[in-house]
Design a protein that fits this description.
By secondary structure, the chain is of the alpha+beta class. The protein has helices at residues 15-26, 43-52, 193-196, 206-217, 239-250; strands at 53-58, 61-67, 73-76, 82-85, 90-94, 100-104, 106-110, 119-123, 126-130, 134-138, 144-150, 152-156, 163-167, 171-174, 182-183, 198-205, 221-223, 229-235, 254-256.
Length: 257
């Protein structure tokens, strides 16, 4: 079980020691986090690709469909671009044009740089173009979202409409009624918690912390002292452990329901 909590304020709860005591008391042995192998490497990965990849034919051109079922899946495209698909998401590209993709759902991209051939993502009501960068695209609802962690991204409604340029740590959303994406004044770093595998809070009110956890885990919470603030980074693999450490750090009681 991986879990790290690092506080930004002095005199706060020592989460490293707390985690060690928690593990010792409950007989927990930490195990390294597993990563899904790229579908193009290794025999085991090739076997997995049989399940996760579908080969289609459209206009006499082979189309490759990558899918994630109940868990996030990682893939490497022919150009070297790494893609992490969120659960239930799909990515399609043609054999001849692997840098021209179509997305259903949510995905995180680490695009291999190619000055001559931009990498493009289209979805229902959104368009993204980059040369090489790292970013998340959420096209799984009526409000599309892009969050950039590195480089520069063009985000627009379509390939021929006006868009915005997003750079590192910038975020924008695009609703059906918007002609141009709206840049967020305060980007939500936890938009990519599902891909990063951790939540980051910095003097965040407990109410907002629980709302973030609720959205991610699809459960609701009730708690005392919702105005208390939390700072730290939490690995997302064990909700019960996260709750236990928050309760200890803030001296609150949290009910999961």
């Amino acid at each position: 079980m991986d879990f790290v909590l690092t506080h930004y304020q002095e005199g706060k709860f020592d989460t490293q020691k707390a985690l060690q005591r928690f593990n010792e008391a409950h007989g927990i042995v930490r195990k390294p986090r597993r990563r899904v192998l790229p579908w193009v490497s290794g025999v085991a990965a090739a076997a997995a690709a049989v399940i996760l990849c579908v080969f289609l034919f459209r206009d006499n051109e082979q189309q490759i469909l990558l899918m994630a079922d109940a868990q996030a899946k990682e893939f490497v495209l022919p150009d070297g671009t790494e893609v992490t698909l969120a659960p239930g998401s799909k990515l399609t590209y043609s054999e001849k044009s692997p840098r021209n993709t179509a997305l259903e759902g949510k995905a995180y991209f680490e695009v291999a740089r190619d000055e001559a051939v931009p990498f493009e993502i289209t979805s229902d009501g959104a368009f993204v173009r980059v040369l090489g960068t790292k970013f998340m695209v959420d096209a799984g609802s009526s409000v599309k979202e892009v969050y950039v962690t590195e480089g520069k991204v063009l985000f627009a409604k379509s390939s021929d409409s006006e868009g915005v340029i997003l750079t590192k740590d910038m975020q924008a959303t695009l609703s059906e009624s918007d002609a141009v994406p709206v840049v967020a004044m305060e980007p939500d770093v936890n938009s990519i918690a599902w891909q990063r595998g951790s939540f980051i809070f910095d003097k965040t009110p407990l109410k907002d912390v629980l709302e973030t956890l609720s959205e991610h885990y699809r459960v609701s919470f009730a708690a005392t002292d919702l105005d208390k603030q939390l700072s730290g980074e939490f690995y997302a693999e064990d909700l019960d452990l996260i709750i236990s450490l928050i309760e200890s750090a803030l001296d609150v009681h949290i009910i999961k329901r």
